[in-house]
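so ive been stuck on this for like two days lol. basically i have the seq below and the ligand is adenosine-5'-triphosphate, smiles is in there too. i just want the complex predicted, nothing fancy, no docking runs or whatever. if the output looks off dont worry ill sanity check it later, just need somthing to start from for the group meeting slides
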Amino acid sequence: MTPTDKSGSGTVESDEAIIEIAGMHKWYGEFHVLKDINLRVCKGERIVVCGPSGSGKSTMIRCINRLEEHQTGKIIVDGIELNDDLKRIDRIRREVGMVFQHFNLFPHLTVLENCCLAPIWVRRMPRKKAEEIGMQYLERVKIPEQAKKYPGQLSGGQQQRVAIARSLCMSPSIMLFDEPTSALDPEMIKEVLETMIELAESGMTMIVVTHEMGFAKTVANRVIFMDEGQIIEENDPETFFSSPEHDRTKLFLSQIM
Amino acid sequence: MINKNGTLPDLPPPSTNIGVIGWLRNNLFPSPLNTLLTFFAIYIIYLVIVPTVDWAFLNSNWVGESRDACTGGGACWVFISARFDLFMYGFYPESEYWRINLAFAILVLLLVLLNIRQVPQRGWLAAFTLICYPVITFYLFSGGVFGLDPVDTSKWGGLSLTLILSGVGIVASLPLGVILALGRNSQMPIVKAASIVFIEFWRGVPLITVLFMSSVMLPLFLPEGTSFDKLLRAMIGIVLFESAYMAEVVRGGLAAIPRGQYEAAKALGLNYWKSMALIILPQALKLVIPGIVNTFIALFKDTTLVLIIGLFDLLTTIEAGFKDSHWLGYALEGYVFAALVYWIFCFSMSRYSQHLERKLSTGHAR
Ligand SMILES: Nc1ncnc2c1ncn2[C@@H]1O[C@H](COP(=O)(O)OP(=O)(O)OP(=O)(O)O)[C@@H](O)[C@H]1O
Ligand SMILES: [Mg+2]
């Protein structure tokens, strides 16, 4: 049985796994932050991860593109198993885009330069081509007119959309989002979520750490609840919100809804 | 006076608060004590300025050939003008002065071109200035090629030597400092330890010791018969010494870059060197421009220490000038002139750094 069968909303293109995490553990020094994580993500699937602060959500998705190192267990991304081999890490990072809570745009570069940097220096694309692609994605996130500005001159919502465009310019097959809207004011949250919904409709594989339950209900194929470094519950959004199985999930949902 | 709609009209401020009078009132005479202090300060300034102007301008002599021309009782600037060539070129042969002038003219031209926005390919021009220009200058100064007479480095001196020493120091210490700073932040224990030892060693010894060791001790360790140019040794000493300082300045900048910048660069697939060169260093160096220029200014003035190993930099040539029996007693003129020259260069660097900071600012306050 694949999780696709349960999918409550939207469709998944295939049941071919693009991310596979098996028996993964991670420690920060003595602190056991991730415990026996097992997760299989299919191509085109949208997964929302939620859970209380400090439960290890960020750490888990950061292991997928090796911003954090796991100690035991297996992580296979797009057929490549993650280990210390730098070449593999580079290949995986090209396939996996990431959007951060605090945008992390490069303040010394213009919006367009932010977008073109990686295609030029990592994919070795000619500058002209990279700029075309950069403009194309800036149009897609609806801020082509800001291309020549610096990130410091944009609003938070605009910055986050630039960050999304910047990742998309590398044409990743997977996008990771770590609380992309939690540093934003309410009216800006909407514009970022709309961008993400459009992205989901285009069939991108997405793992999104967020507490935006509306987003989870409309977009996710599966919702994952984490607590104290473990995946406690994993279900399609409808079941997850209407009849959560675990007490801890119920408690968490009652606190945020 | 109330407007029809009941609001108060905009009135000009009272004349005692604006203009020259307002400024004087607010800044110089706001209270009896301040008024007293103002007059006291004016008196002190008067005491200093009047004799200085008398000495430097009103009673000074500017034209002539020897000290006999100095009859005014004030400054004898004839000393400077008569010895000007020595101060600029040291003992460089007079017939070859054009080579130094040419090297300097090329430098000025390059710097001007580099600061004009419309010039195409400024990146290549900058690379030329940093890599090819020093080579050209070296051959112009030392000769021995293209039919240029060889001039031994012992003849180099004056302001041109000061500029060479500090130019080499500035151009070489920044990249070395960056590498040391990256080394000190490295994950690799050996690289990290080596950088720390290097930095702490060179920061821990006075430059004067470094120069002294390079001229007295180094020859003892070298195999007999190898001669190792004195100027070159001084340059190496200065570069190593200053790069240790530069490393710490750059490290301060690296520490100020948020972790998110490193993570975003990694997540985009940039490797270590690319993320350093494209993301981290441009931001870190921009942050520490004042510190870098501060180090450059210190370096520029520290080059005067080469006098203890017998090199004739600007200050040493000036001192040699007034110790000459023809000009005994004109030390003050010499030192004032030296101070003025050093001040012009240091102040220019300082202004340029402020200009650079403004130019590079992208409206992002972190
Ligand atoms: N570099 C680190 N060194 C040591 N402990 C860390 C480090 N980073 C995170 N932790 C700890 O690991 C735990 C999980 O952190 P993580 O950031 O993954 O939580 P999270 O679920 O994303 O929380 P939040 O919702 O607040 O972002 C926390 O208890 C945190 O204190
Ligand atoms: Mg987090």
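The pocket of adenosine-5'-triphosphate (ligand 1) is lined by residues A 28, 31, 33, 51, 53-59 (CB under 6 Å). Chain A has nine helices and ten strands.
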